[in-house]
Write a structure and sequence with these properties.
This protein has helices spanning 4-7, 33-49, 57-67, 88-109, 133-145, 148-160, 172-189, 194-207, 241-244, 248-258, 261-276, 307-319, 325-341, 381-390, 411-429, 452-455, 487-499, 502-518, 546-559, and strands at residues 114-116, 121-123, 169-171, 221-223, 228-230, 239-240, 287-289, 294-295, 343-345, 352-354, 356-361, 367-372, 374-376, 441-444, 465-466, 528-529, 539-540, 570-572, 578-580. The protein is mostly helical. The chain binds 2-acetamido-2-deoxy-beta-D-glucopyranose (2 copies). This is Glycoside hydrolase.
Length: 591
């Protein structure tokens, strides 16, 4: 967390114990294939060592036991289906919020990568100069909201000022999803304004050298000026799973637009390596070796460094109009692993959540896996993602009804739908705080937990979960923050489009009002909150770029007419940039 380029990372800012220093190496510096085998044979035993009563299959059984009797899918309430027409006052309130954010940034920091609303200044990711981090990330939202004047000024900035000739190291993944993704969506939504495609392609060409490793897995960092991949030595040169597997929608769409195979091949190669490296049980650890193309013994989780790997499995399948079965197979395999090992039920309110597995030495020096009941806010993408997967990959016919009917989904589809609905509910439960905002990380109580863990948090915390390390009278832990993240409203948007159930609009509106009340800065912009369970709030002087690209976009779409960016025609990249579904003209798929 020392280099400027690294501090900006979105997906790992919540990282706590699972730093690379904790990547356990089985016997020496390098994991041998024998070492790997040994580790994985022990996975089952490790789970037994750290066994808890409600582990793994219990939630599944609970679900399957019910499914025969239901006539409706869970989460589908009869008579709750709205007309899908826009809720105009609420939609317009979100547009007003976007303008409050954008106009302050434009006034104080136009062109800078990031914005600090209290000091009224901007900053760049590196001293070599900005790369349009905020501008490129925000343009498609302006186009979707119909903000023509703002759009024209942003376009002029891209035409006249945007440069990628910066001799400094940038995060490969963040630059791809935010800047390249933003430019590609702007190209599509502006009716093919070529400026955006040229800029996106120039950026892609500067990123391509990162893929030149022994395995084909891209390096974590890129020097955009020198056009060189740079290993991330903070992580021993290892690459994270989410980062290498969350470039595919962008590079594949660029290949489709330009007819250049190279973008397709580089992105697809990564997926072939991941498939070949498959770990037993369908699980994926969060680090890979770019030399050998193998998973390292590291945490297994759906939060930082893991999250969007799963998101992009289903979305790659959807991007090419459900023509590439390999992604559907990889997705199903991963979801089964998640259900078998990570899906848990909380002890009193029976909330469904996902835990993490962390490698750990036993007293005898053997490797086991400790189940940690920790869920990042980042994991809240998964509820909506599972519902989307259930109605496509898990459907017996296409398209399914809205809401889907029980008989339209396969057994796996029903399983994923139910878990998805429950996870959205759980994420809403993590908003039951003094501010109505949810923290960066929650821990769930386990049977036999020391009481002090949660007694230490404030009295109004629900008993099922708590914010670790948050004690009254002490500075709040980093887990207690809300940094304007989108994942819960992203799931609410998907859940609403797939069910038409107005409860999801109501929940999204409650979150929007909490953001307005606690994050809005009077003089312009929005700021992160240091402790979601304390009022009045203390702020952090930062407005993350994903507020304008994701959080406000998904809220807008939640209240917009459902014909705006229909899910049957678009996939959203992990930064909420929409790309159209297409039938590929490339050779695709691999085995
Ligand atoms: C960010 O980089 C741009 C381009 O080099 C530069 O014009 C601007 O002054 C920089 N902003 C800050 C705050 O350093
Ligand atoms: C996707 O495939 C269906 C047929 O399976 C076809 O009707 C539809 O036009 C395709 N969509 C696109 C965007 O190519």
């Amino acid at each position: 967390m020392t280099e400027p380029g690294l501090r900006q990372r979105k997906k790992d800012s919540s990282e706590t114990s699972a730093t690379p220093k904790n990547v356990t190496h089985a016997g020496g510096d390098k994991i041998s294939s024998l070492g790997n085998l040994y580790v994985w044979v022990l996975l089952g035993a490790g789970l037994l060592i750290y066994q808890f009563p409600n582990i793994a299959k219990a939630p599944l059984r609970l679900f399957l036991g019910q499914s025969g009797r239901d006539t409706h899918l869970p989460g589908v309430r009869p008579n709750s289906v709205s007309t899908f027409s826009a809720d105009i006052p609420k939609r317009d309130a979100v547009v007003e919020a976007f303008k409050h954010a954008w106009l302050a940034y434009e006034r104080d920091a136009m062109g800078d990568d990031e914005y600090h609303p209290f000091s009224h200044t901007g900053s760049n990711l590196t001293a070599a100069g900005g790369i349009g981090y905020t501008v490129a990330d925000s343009i498609d939202t302006m186009l979707i909201m119909g903000l023509d004047d703002e759009y024209q000024r942003a376009r002029t900035w891209v035409a006249e000022k945007l440069s990628f000739d910066r001799d400094a190291e940038f995060n490969t993944f963040e630059t791809t999803i935010r800047v390249m993704g933003g430019l590609l969506a702007a190209y599509h939504l502006s009716d093919q304004d070529h400026l955006f495609l040229e800029k996106a392609q120039e950026l892609a060409d500067r990123i391509l050298p990162t893929f030149e490793t022994d395995s084909g897995l891209p390096l974590s960092l890129v020097n955009l000026g020198l056009k060189e991949g740079v290993p991330d030595m903070d992580n021993n040169g290892m690459v994270s799973t989410a980062e290498v597997a969350t470039l595919q929608l962008e590079f594949r769409y660029l290949a489709h637009l330009t007819d250049e195979d190279i973008y397709w091949e580089k992105a697809e190669r990564v997926m072939a390596v991941l498939r070949a490296a498959r770990m037993p049980h369908g699980l994926a650890s969060i680090f890979l070796s770019p030399k050998e193309g193998r998973f390292m013994t590291a945490s297994i989780r759906l939060g930082s460094r893991g999250d969007s790997y799963y998101e992009y499995l289903i979305k790659q399948y959807l991007q090419t109009n459900q023509t590439e079965d390999v992604y559907r197979e990889m997705y199903d395999d991963a979801m089964t692993g998640i259900h078998n090992y990570l899906v848990q039920t909380s002890i009193s309110s029976k909330l469904i959540y996902t835990a993490e597995l962390n490698p750990e030495r036993t007293g005898q020096g053997e490797l086991g896996w400790r189940l940690t009941p920790k869920q990042d806010h980042l994991v809240c993408f998964l509820g909506g993602s599972l519902m989307l997967g259930a109605t496509t990959s898990g459907a017996l016919l296409h398209p399914v009804s809205v809401p889907p009917r029980l008989e339209e989904l396969s057994e796996v589809g029903k399983r994923d739908w139910k878990t998805g609905v429950e996870l959205v509910k759980t994420c809403m439960a993590t908003h039951e705080t003094a501010t109505g905002l949810s923290p960066e990380i929650v821990h769930f109580r386990m049977p036999g937990d020391e009481v002090e863990n949660y007694a230490a948090s404030k009295g109004n915390m629900p008993s099922d979960w708590y914010i670790k390390g948050s004690k009254p009278g002490h500075p709040p832990s980093l887990d207690a923050r809300y940094i304007l993240r989108p994942e819960t409203v992203e799931s609410l948007f998907l859940a609403f489009r797939l069910t038409g159930d107005t409860q999801y609009r109501d929940q999204g509106w409650a979150i929007f009002q909490a953001i307005e009340k606690h994050c809005r800065v009077d003089s312009g912009g929005y700021a992160s909150v240091k402790n979601v369970d304390q009022v009045p709030v203390e702020h952090e002087d930062k407005m993350e770029t994903f507020l304008m690209s994701e959080t406000l976009k998904y809220l807008y779409l939640l209240f917009a007419d459902a014909s705006v960016l229909p899910l049957s025609e678009y996939v959203f990249n992990t930064e909420a940039h929409p790309f159209p579904v297409f039938n590929p003209s490339f050779r695709t798929g691999f085995s």
